[in-house]
């Protein structure tokens, strides 16, 4: 649905609620809640459930939410990087190929955290230091990539003259 010639409705309500809910889960679990607390575990389960729901939505959701619209194939990635290197605009209504790659990496890290976190509750892995350390490394990698993702959204928004943060709130990308 076009709102006018300089705007396009891209992110549906599910994608926006998913995004900000996952951001909240990650930030609260990393910065506010102590590891091992019951609340930490439940927030982790909620985050992993959100990712699973987003994966399903990637197949049945609205046009720009579907993986088929933005999946970062090698050809799409190559064209996108070549355009950036050449200084050409390579705009996409939804995720650009590098943004899609980042989104998939972030979701994979959340699921890896869920697996390593759950494993720590099992008798077979109880108190295993290597597993706790792996969980912490994955969490730190998630925060690092999420920070890079946020910075890239700001930079790409300036390059494309689109407020990508506002678009993730309103669902509408406005060029201007």
TrEMBL record:
It is found in: Cell membrane. The chain crosses the membrane at residues 14-33, 39-60, 98-118, 138-159. Residues 10-171 form the Cytochrome b561 bacterial/Ni-hydrogenase domain. It is a multi-pass membrane protein. Keywords: Cell membrane, Membrane, Transmembrane, Transmembrane helix. The keyword Cell division does not apply. The keyword Transmembrane helix applies. This is Cytochrome b561. The lineage of its organism: Bacteria, Pseudomonadati, Pseudomonadota, Betaproteobacteria, Burkholderiales.
